[in-house]
Write a structure and sequence with these properties.
The chain has 560 residues and is of the alpha/beta class. The chain folds into 3 domains: 280 residues, Ribonuclease Z/Hydroxyacylglutathione hydrolase-like (Metallo-beta-lactamase, Chain A, 4-Layer Sandwich), CATH 3.60.15.10; 146 residues, Rossmann fold (3-Layer(aba) Sandwich), CATH 3.40.50; 95 residues, Roll (Ubiquitin-like (UB roll)), CATH 3.10.20. The chain has 15 helices and 25 strands. The strands form 5 sheets. An 8-stranded mixed β-sheet has the order 7-6-5-3-2-1-20-21. Helix 6 crosses helix 7.
Length: 560
């Protein structure tokens, strides 16, 4: 029998920074090594990475890092973790290896920084003993070609991890999947399914065929057959971009791809005969003047995307210059946290005085699982426990509602926050443990910045407010004698019914006392863990009721 722990360092109450650990009888498997990109430039913060201190302190037990979906958000933390845990094996697929290598090659081209990443490409559906687990990589249908999930097979059953996925796709082997094979092999012995929450709660039905952009692009390109069409897209949206390239080939339109990392990966696909579009004509930026009806694809990472487009719109880009006859297609779905950046960009597009401006409609979904996709996966794998990840707590709550509608016991769906460690023993869930984790802030110089956290908190207070929680606790019984909370800058009291606040007050009081009672009975009371619990509960409740996630400051006084 096995002892298994699952711990999230990031990605459990947010859509970025995914990073998780799976501990199987003392052997540790790291899933993703993500990063967050702040949307406010005023912070002085360039990036945010998870707290790697636990990983570093347990580095001798780590068997590898597993990255199945090579989005920068999933692997961007490697450049910081690698400094402390050098030569750690990074297991991924062939395209993932190419994307990661290309990123580090291009991102640090003009610097003295070198990376010797120990990347290992796993064979599909070929079980491999890594430490105490037998690991199998399988294909998923996602927005990046050859995206994969992982099975960690143990004595007590299989732990299956799958990030962004859809059940069906239309671009052949590049975006195919092995769901049926995995279900037939592990469907009766899946201990836990760790799954990206995707579009649960946002989109009913299946995502396919609403991922398709072919008809949308075809209509625009046909309408503007004699002038340029400029399409901007995040560099991880391979499914969408490759669909566009197929349309360009069918319409006999030359294509200029502006974006190094994407272009090199695309060239890799072509050179290895993994992907081929008949009739596709690729030109470079210097040839644009010779092709007045070219389709220009501006492809950039999320990190550099908005600054790249700002340069183009302001006439500061050295290679791409807008013309009055140009037509611009903003081919991204709105990302959480980037609403302001996107709105500003769209406004600047209209100031650029070009011919036509398009934004991809909401009806064309990103290549992420909707409600029915998840139902299919759950019914196929029949997991004993489900752990939704990669989403805000609102997304994770929606997942619990979805599974409840399927008749799944609510206790089988484990909703976690960053820093919560769930434990399994002898094939059964045995409880949680809280770890204090503090996100690490990277300044504009690329260095860890301890002062940046206070800057970040002040900005958070400005944007979402702060909730001051004061508790007076009996030192002997550990029960609350008195408590109050003061939401400063979170809500407008004139617009809020007092009954709502009173109900919230009672709900929080009940939650706090229930937690304390359990801690006293288990003789595990810890002040730091209780403060963490208060912060998490209050933050969740305010997000749920007022759509704001404020900073929570807790003060505890013990009465003797």
């Amino acid at each position: 029998m096995s002892k298994i722990d699952f711990l999230g360092f990031g990605g459990l109450d947010e859509k970025q920074s995914p990073c998780y650990s799976l501990n199987i009888d003392g052997d540790i498997y790291i899933i993703n090594c993500g990063i967050s990109l702040p949307t406010s430039a005023s912070l002085g913060i360039k990036k945010i990475i998870p707290d790697f201190s636990w990983i570093i302190s347990n580095k001798n037990s780590i068997k590898g890092i597993f990255i199945g979906n090579a989005n920068y958000i999933n692997f961007g933390g490697l450049q910081y973790l690698e400094k402390f845990v050098p030569n750690i094996p990074i297991y991924t697929n062939d395209i993932g290896s190419c994307i990661i290598h290309n990123y580090f090659k291009n991102a640090f081209y003009n610097s003295n920084t070198t990376f010797n990443l120990n990347i290992k490409v796993l064979d599909l559906l070929k079980p491999l003993q890594i430490g105490k687990a037998i690991v199998t990589m399988f294909k998923t249908s996602s927005y990046i070609p050859h995206s994969t999930g992982f099975v960690f097979d143990t004595k007590d059953g299989a732990i299956i991890y799958i990030d962004d996925f859809v059940v069906n796709s239309t671009l052949g082997s590049l975006f195919s999947n092995n769901y049926i094979k995995i279900a037939s092999t592990y469907g009766n012995r899946c201990l836990a399914l760790i799954v990206g929450a995707g579009l649960v709660g946002e989109s009913s039905g299946f995502t396919y065929p609403n991922t398709q952009t072919i008809n949308y692009f075809t209509e625009i390109i046909q309408e503007h057959k004699d002038s340029r069409v400029i399409v901007s897209c995040y560099d991880f949206e391979y499914f969408r971009i490759l669909s566009l390239l197929g349309v360009c080939a069918s319409q006999d339109r030359p294509v200029c791809i502006s974006g190094k990392t994407f272009f090199y990966t695309f060239k890799h696909l072509q050179d290895n005969k993994t992907f081929f579009i008949k009739g596709l004509k690729i030109i470079n930026e210097s040839q644009l003047e010779q092709h007045p009806n070219a389709v220009v694809v501006l492809v950039e990472s999320l990190e550099k995307y908005f600054s790249k487009l700002d340069k183009v719109l302001n006439g500061e880009d050295q290679k791409i210059h807008l013309l009055p006859t140009d037509n611009f297609v903003y081919a991204n779905n709105t990302l959480f946290g980037y609403e302001k950046s996107e709105a500003s960009l769209i406004d600047n597009l209209h100031r650029a005085h070009i011919n036509e401006i398009y934004k991809i409609p909401k009806s064309i979904l990103p290549t992420k699982a909707s409600n029915e996709d998840h139902k299919f996966l759950i019914n196929a794998l029949k997991p004993k426990y489900i752990i939704p990840v990669s989403g805000l707590h609102l997304n994770l709550e929606s997942y619990k509602k979805l599974t409840s509608s399927m008749g799944i016991n609510k206790n089988s769906v484990l909703l976690l926050d960053n820093g919560e460690q769930v434990k399994f023993e002898n094939g059964n869930y045995t409880g949680k443990k809280y770890l204090k984790l503090s996100p690490q802030f990277i300044n504009s110089l690329g260095s860890l910045d301890n002062e940046a956290s206070s800057i970040f908190e002040r900005d958070q207070m400005k944007e979402t407010g702060v909730v001051l929680v004061n508790l007076l606790i009996d030192n002997f019984t550990k029960q609350i004698i008195k408590y109050n909370f003061d939401p400063v800058g979170v809500i407008n009291f004139t617009d809020i019914n007092k009954d709502i606040l009173n109900k919230l007050y009672e709900e929080l009081n009940t939650n706090f006392n229930t937690y304390l009672k359990g801690q006293v009975e288990a003789k595990t009371f810890d002040v730091k863990e209780f403060k963490l619990y208060v912060r998490k509960v209050v933050s969740k409740q305010f997000e749920k009721k007022f759509d704001k996630r404020p900073l929570v400051i807790t003060t505890i006084i013990f009465f003797k």
